[in-house]
Amino acid sequence: xxxxxxxxxxxxxxVLDYGTPLREEDIMPYYTHIRRGxxxxxxxxxxxxxxxxxxxxxxxxxxxTAAQAQALVDALNASTTTVRYRLFTGHKHCAPFIEDAVTxxxxxxxxxxxxxxxxxxxxxxxxxxxxxxxxxxxxxxxLTLHEVQAWNEEPEFIHYWTNALEKTLSTTGRDAxxxxxxxxxxxxxxxxxxxxxxxxxxxxxxxxxxxxxGLTSYHMAWQSAGVRGDWLTPDVATVTKKVADDxxxxxxxxxxxxxxxxxxxVLYDNDIExxxxxxxxxxxxxxxxxxxTNATFIEAMHRAVLRTGIEQQx
Length: 314
Fold this sequence. Notes:
This protein is an alpha/beta fold. The two termini are 20 Å apart. The longest helix is centred in the first third of the chain and has 18 residues, at 61-78. It folds into two domains: 9-151 and 294-306, Rossmann fold; 155-287, Rossmann fold (3-Layer(aba) Sandwich), CATH 3.40.50.1400. Helix content is 44%, strand content 16%. It contains twelve helices and eight strands. The strands form two sheets. A four-stranded parallel β-sheet has the order 2-1-3-4, with helices on both faces. Strands 6-5-7-8 form a four-stranded parallel β-sheet, sandwiched between helices.
């Protein structure tokens, strides 16, 4: 660790994420907020409770995000002597909300902060909304935010997924009997029609990782779509069934490159639903390890924050 100048200025590290219910009783208000004040039906709430119970009662998302954020601020403070980063976190759909975190920063005397969303791909539907909410509250205090708009092109991000897939393929093999499906969270079609770059960025990342491990063929699928409206296709179930049409395929490797840690969409939508479908189709189910607090993955965020130039402006 570098020796820090005692006069180093304190700057904020504002980590934003989606949020998750911490207890069963949090499910109703959480999903009501997601639906902009329209509560889910009793049947929908019960279905959600069953999904959480199936993965142990609650999602590990909150704990993993906190650990990722702490690892990131530790990496930043270990690599610089010009500033000292202080961590603040805000959630999109539960307390402390994004606005709460910005207010907390201002009340702590912070005047500048690097801001990163725990979602590596820019999207009009998701990450843009995080930044807009943070900006509006920051303007109230004259607080300057240095935004990491996206970080999926950081070399360490690609390296993480390449290494994770290589590790899995070293176990399953990489011949014609093994099919690889890259997955990411779906988006409503109306957002795609607005020109959202998210699908293209996901597909570009999948292509880079596939090329890095030497795959000559792979599949792209979308998962975890909402229950209302039209969402981006093909969905993961459709792609899995298509893979099963090839009689040579015996194993499916899922690579959830749209997500950054173990949580409901991975532990249930992949590990339970996709596995059940694979069982039905007589296919072996395998999934690569999620990034969580992997050092290479944390370094991708570290480099992305440094690229905002917040340290050079001191």
